[in-house]
Each structure stands twice: as structure tokens, then as C-alpha cells.
Amino acid sequence: MLGNHSSATEFYLLGFSGSRELRHILFATFFFFYSVTFIGNTVIIVIVCLDKRLQSPMYFFLGHLSALEILVTTIVVPVMLWGLLLPGMQTVSLAACVTQPFLYLALGTTEFALLGAMAVDRYVAICNPLRYNVIMNSRTCNLVLFGVLFQIWPVYATYQLSYCKSNVVDNFFCDRGQLLKLSCDNTLFMEFILFLMAVFVLFGSLIPTIVSYTYIVSTILKIPSASGRRKAFSTCASHFTCVVIGYGSCLFLYVKPKQTQATDYNRVVSLMVSVVTPFLNPFIFTLRNDKVIEALQDRVKQCCHLFRN
């Protein structure tokens, strides 16, 4: 605990409790998840950049989504892995502890905007294909990259708070809710604003997604052949699965008026958002996408041919 008139300049991350053996098991598990996430998403980025068959807005969004997944996990997971190797608690400066959630949430905000844009992309491709190239132009694609600007006020407000209750963060990273809990200032108004911002980000991108899929399903059901309906659904299945996982976990984590509650609950959902979802996305978007699989197979064949020569 800190003195009544002092403010913390550094924090200690409590991380995961348990025996040394358990922490080593967790380290190996999370390191495996992070490695697969990094390699899988990097492969998608390289394929999208190199293969001419994937030069469309849909794969532009997919490449950027993969880049965001790499960045989100890199902001959180290496710090968590280092904490699992340390015998005690991990020390983080105030500036680093405020910057980490800023980058994490800024990238997350951009990712949700990207998921909303991907839903609109699928709607235009299925319901209005003749105008696809007109609507989904480069300007439309670049409009989704606004997450950093959206998070400037929260990071400034968090940095201005005084932290005199404690400097122990009960999480594996600098969770903003935990920082508000440690502040000796009245954070009720700030929590309310953060709640409204979370609602705006999540529902602002979720509503276009719901509307787009409503029209998509309505259009697909009008297709007379079963094979045609199946092919149309397959183009949306990957994105829809990602939407369900991503929005479901973040709705439970961020859209609540009280930002400081349920530490264990927040830790589990944070793991889902920062570790599990980025790990699953390369499989979700490649295993159900014939063009990506074909492009990957061609690149593997080219690499094998080069090694043989």
C-alpha cells in the first residue's frame, strides 16, 4: 500500500498465481499460442501481398486484420510470458502501464471497425455485386483505421489520475479497469464515459454487421440451387465465426457500467480476447477459404521447387 499523499510511479503485475511447475506449463501453453498466432497471421499477410488472385477489398481487410491480431497479441503476451518466468511480481512504470492499454484498445477499436467493414464488404459482394468495385474503393477501406485517435482522451485521462490506494495490478497486463480501481480520485464520470465509448465502438460496428447479414441471408435464401446457396454462405462463414467470437467476448469484457469489477472474470475474458481469438483466426479464415488455400498451396510448391533446385 502507498501513503495517503503519494502517487504510484510504477506498478506490480500480480499475473497468475500457482506453483512454479504450473507457471511453466502456462508459459509453454501461451508461448505455443503466441507462436502459432504470429506465424499463421504472418503467412496470411505475405500471401495476400504476393498473390494477384487476392488483390480485392475482402483480402485487403483480411491482411489488415491479421496484422492487427499480431500487434494485439504482441502488446500483451510477451509481457505475460516474461511475468510467468519471474519468481516475483513484474514491475512496470506508470508510462508503460498507461501506454499498454492505450495501444491494446486502440488496435481493438480499429479491429472492430474492420470487422464491420468486412460485413459491409460481404453484403455488397452478395447483394450488389455490380457496384462492388465502386463502393468498396480504397477510400472506403482506409476509413476504418481510426482506432488510435479514438483512444487519445482515455489514455490522457488515465495518466492524469493519482494512484495512492495500491500499486499492485491484479492481472497479467495493465488492465484499465484495474488502474481505475487503484486510483484515489473519483473515477465514476470517467467510467461512465468509457462505458459509452465501449457501447459506441462495439454497437457502432455490430449494427452494420447485423444489418448486412440480414440482407445477406435474405438474398442467399432466394438463390434457387442448393449448391449456389452453399457457395454464397461459405464466403461469409469465416467472417461470421470471427464476429461471434470477437464481439461475444468483448461485450462481456467492456460493455458494463462498472469498469472495476470481477477481476477473475476479466482475466479469463482478457485471455479469450488477447490469446485465444488471434490464435483461432488464421484457421478460421484459411480452412474455409478456397482462394487462400490455393494461394498457400502454390507458394508451398514454389518453395519446394526452389529448395530442390
UniProtKB/TrEMBL annotation:
Pfam families linked: 7tm_4
Name of the featured protein: Olfactory receptor
Main localization, broad class: membrane
GO annotations of cellular component type: plasma membrane
Record membrane topology: Multi-pass membrane protein
Keywords: Cell membrane, G-protein coupled receptor, Membrane, Olfaction, Receptor, Sensory transduction, Transducer, Transmembrane, Transmembrane helix
Subcellular location: Cell membrane
Keyword Cell membrane attached: yes
Organism lineage: Eukaryota, Metazoa, Chordata, Craniata, Vertebrata
CDD domains named in the record: 7tmA_OR6C-like (cd15912)
Keyword Oxidoreductase found: no
GO molecular function: G protein-coupled receptor activity; olfactory receptor activity
Family: Belongs to the G-protein coupled receptor 1 family.
Function statement: Putative odorant or sperm cell receptor.
Segments forming domain G-protein coupled receptors family 1 profile: 40-285
Membrane-spanning intervals of the chain: 25-50, 59-82, 102-120, 141-159, 192-216, 237-255, 267-287
Name of the gene this protein is made from: OR9A4
